[in-house]
Amino acid sequence: MQTKRGRSPLHHASANGHAAVVELLIAAKANLDCIEFCNRGVALHDAAAKGHMTIVSMLVEANARVDVCNEAGVTPLAAASAAGHVHVAAFLRKHVLLQQPGRALDPVDLAGAQASA
């Protein structure tokens, strides 16, 4: 189920910090990588940009993709970094490298990695 803009209940819950709702949606097998039509972002972008560490952790532990880019080419790591959420950026940086060993961070992610170091 999505709105006309493609926002799912998981997008809304993640953006607004509703961890209990996110937990229920994950348990109900919600699509963690559902792409919003408007900016092509996923729920992890929303949680990371708002600094919702608990939700970011829940989504990543449930195997949400950490390397997905939105329409502007921004990853959740870059979104967290740009918003000044250093703790979220550090967590995502670790998981980007764990999910893709040997992957070089792109310039936008590298800025996030440097901010979180």
Describe this structure in words.
This protein has one domain (9-116): Serine Threonine Protein Phosphatase 5, Tetratricopeptide repeat. It is 55% helix and 0% strand. The chain has helices at residues 9-15, 19-27, 43-50, 53-61, 76-82, 86-99, 107-116. Helix 4 runs parallel beside helix 6 (86-99).
At a glance:
With 117 residues, the chain is mainly alpha-helical. It contains 7 helices and no strands. It starts with 8 loop residues before the first helix and ends with a helix.
Structure characteristics:
mainly alpha; Serine Threonine Protein Phosphatase 5, Tetratricopeptide repeat; single chain
Topology, element by element:
Layout: H1 9-15, H2 19-27, H3 43-50, H4 53-61, H5 76-82, H6 86-99, H7 107-116
Count of alpha/pi helices:
7
**Reported CATH architecture:** Alpha Horseshoe
| Domain module tally | 1
Low-confidence sequence ranges? 112-117
Shape: globular
Radius of gyration: 13 Å
Our estimate of the beta-strand percent is under 5%
From N to C, what is the helix and strand string? HHHHHHH
**Name given to the CATH homologous superfamily:** Ankyrin repeat-containing domain
Class, according to the CATH hierarchy? Mainly Alpha
Number of strands: 0
